[in-house]
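Many introductory courses stop at the sequence. We go one step further.
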Amino acid sequence: MAYQETKTIGYGTRLSNSIKGIGASFLMLLAGTALLWWNEGRAVKTTKMLEEAQKTALHVEDVSKVDPALNGKLIHATAFTQTNDSLCDGIFGVGAVAIKLDRKVQYYQWVEKSRTETKDKIGGEKEEVTTYSYKKQWVGRPVNSLEFKDTDYQKKNFVLMNVDSESFTAEDVTFGAYQLPESMIRSISGTIPMELNFDEELLIQWNRDIKIAFNDLGIQPERAVAMVSNKEKSVAEEDSMEQVVGAKLDYVHVKGNVLYFGKNPNSPQIGDMSVTFTKVLPGEASVIAEVNGSNLQSFTAKNGETLSVLTMGMLSMDEMFQNEHASNTIMTWVWRFVGLFLVIGGLKGIFGILTTLLKVLPFLADIVGLGVGLVCNVLGFVWSLLVIAIAWLFYRPVIAYILLVAILVLIVFLTRKGREKKKAEAVVI
């Protein structure tokens, strides 16, 4: 059964919180405005950098040998990435000659979810009812069940060991005859499962360690769901559990690229841990970068923007630049929506005090709230367009004038609509 908490917030407290929130809302408005301004400058600078790079870049057919004539030039080439670095996971002793080695750890835990419903009361009070529910699921980190609201679920979580997920990356990776920088090495992809071959003695040792961990924790392994104090267990109970563990349970399983600690991978229990290993091997890649001796590095445009691109597979120079332009466009719109969200959120926080003042009559506050929300949405949209237009006056003058005209048309349209609505209401009266 779900666990619930009910909290009542007084009218005075709500007013105080709303007034305090005005300052944070102003900061949100300013942050959204600054983000919109910065984003337009970033977009234009990136576009100009890409255009400059595309004009100066040259395609190189063969990079198997260092060519002094290419020094200082921006090149495009396709070749195989290579490395002799041996990567090793020191905790589990897993290793391979690869560009990347990833260890992903998951724990089977009880997880707390919450859902809050609010109800305004006449007089200005607000009632918050928070419902907590619990379910078992795989998570990336151990969950502290001592912080659960429902005491019936506290102390139910435990882990046999605490290991973080981690990624290991080769430092010496070449592209043909040229050395790749760290930023481009991180761009190399193509994850494949890593076959695991553990020494039998090591598996036996792990299995023994887990049995000892169960004894130390006082966990009943056939259930593995609740923590029990060692002091509450008798010597006879400990001996009994040791026999059950030794006779029936095998806590270490290896299948493919997964190392599993627990009784049964097909029926996980609280405390089970799954460790998945993957690697990235050398492969064919296409690169746009500047040559510096035997190294590849980022190209720096006249406006200070930099470019170095590594994409897996064989791509032409035009295709790679098209992808970069498309990525720039996508990022521009993403940041525009984020900026718009901050601006509208800031305005709603500033004018939200009007709605809070009327919370003594919830139905009236709801009506006013709808109006405030609509006005803030329109003002936020217009404000964002205005900021973008002013920014474009510096970065894109021609398009800026077109956008300013569009904003003026929108304002005139909304004004006329408002006047027509007032006239219609006057006729009805």
